[in-house]
Amino acid sequence: MTTETTVAYRVTLDPSPTQEAHLFSHCGAARFAYNTMLAEVKNNLETHAADPSVDYLNWTAYGLRKHFNTIKPTVAPWSAEVSKEAFATGCERLARALKNWSASKRGLRKGAKVGFPRWKSKHSTTPSCHFSTGPMRLGEDAHSVVLPKLGRLHTHESTARLARVLSRGGRITGATVSYRRGRWQVSFSVRVPAVTPPPLPQRPRVAGIDLGLKRLATIASADGSVRVVENPRHLNAHVQHLRFLNRQLARRQRGSAGWQHTRRRLAKTHARIAHLRENSLHHLTTSLVRDFDVLGVESLAVGALGRGGNRGLRRSIADAAWGELYRQLDYKAAQAGKLVIRADRFYPSSKTCSSCGAVKTKLLLSEREYVCEVCGVVIDRDDNAALNLCRVAETALSAGVDSGGGSVRPDASPAVPGEAATIERWSDTPQGVSAR
């Protein structure tokens, strides 16, 4: 039996004004179905509280969609103008939100508490709609796609890469259109035959990666060489222009032509920053997976780091996008058969001497050079941490890691070079893989 995996391919659309209006109509219909069924659920809960003999409404996606179809002729007489998938999108998203709230309330869901679903506003919700049935295919040329009820839509970029995947046995199982950063995009979910990645070589190339803000990444090889990737700081390069546009937007009358024009300029600037950051991360992660076989990285709580410190620090951490870098590194390594080894969350990579293994009890952030009091070595702080992470990867590899690719996490990272570490499988199958 041939195994398959799901890969997402995102394409930027170039719709005509009429097609753009239809796209907004579909996204609005999804939001309408969500709010309508949320009102039905609230009324049902209030009725049940007053009269316990009244049964609860079925909160599954199927149950909400079935109930919406019974009231659709009354509440949405215009429903024939959009695809039925738009209403199914709203019902499915509400079912997921209710499931998360119910599981969180009963203590069955990890993470932060999830509140009861709230209304979706036209002005604060990202317009999006999902299609799971109907014609979803590429156009005859390399710059068009076909979607249910929307027909043929022109695209800004070529679809040749996706066409090659489909010609090799891939099949489109779903499509999601969304309006982000001033542009329409379609993301195709494609089922492709799973390819077994090649095993690790007999002598794998090992490297340690230390992430930072001044340096985006410090890469230390097993031979002791260190490569530095400077932080491009895309947000800082545009922050003055963003402030100017935000002040201009605040001074103009909300809803006026000038306000709309400034808002589009602001969205375009944010889109450029995001695209530049995404491009830089893709170049970095692709080169890392291509140049090395085993990568040792830190286990950073990026979300917690982004909530601490002052506003400038939080902005710099968000601009560096460490979480996205880790995500790309994980799925690219899994596809290429490479290995990403994460050190223990509390492993002192910066406080440990990469030469003798001595550990300092205290190391200030202002100390940019590591001076070992035992062996007297003087080395850059980031270079020292990267070398230690490389040592963690080598130790974990010598402990016997299978060569199937993906990410693993040692139970206990070595504090002394050469100390053994046991290995626990962490995440071999990347979730939400986005191909590029």
Outline the structure in words.
It contains ten helices and 17 strands. The two termini are 28 Å apart. It is globular, with a radius of gyration of 26 Å. With 436 residues, the chain is an alpha+beta fold. The strands form four sheets. It has a seven-stranded mixed beta sheet. A five-stranded mixed beta sheet has the order 2-6-7-1-17. Strands 3-4-5 form a three-stranded antiparallel beta sheet, with no helix packed on it. Helix content is 42%, strand content 20%. A hairpin with a 3-residue loop joins strand 4 and strand 5.
Physical arrangement of strands within the biggest beta sheet: 10-9-8-11-12-15-16
Number of helix segments?
10
What is the share of helical residues?
Answer: 40-55%
Strand content: 15-25%
What is the molecular shape? globular
* Sheet/helix structural class: alpha+beta
> From the alpha-carbon coordinates, what is the Rg to the nearest angstrom?
26 Å
Order of helix and strand elements from N to C terminus: EHHHEEEEHEEEEEHHEHHHEEEHEEE
Mean of residue pLDDT values: 86
Number of strands: 17
In terms of per-residue confidence, which ranges show pLDDT below 50 for 5 or more consecutive residues?
411-436
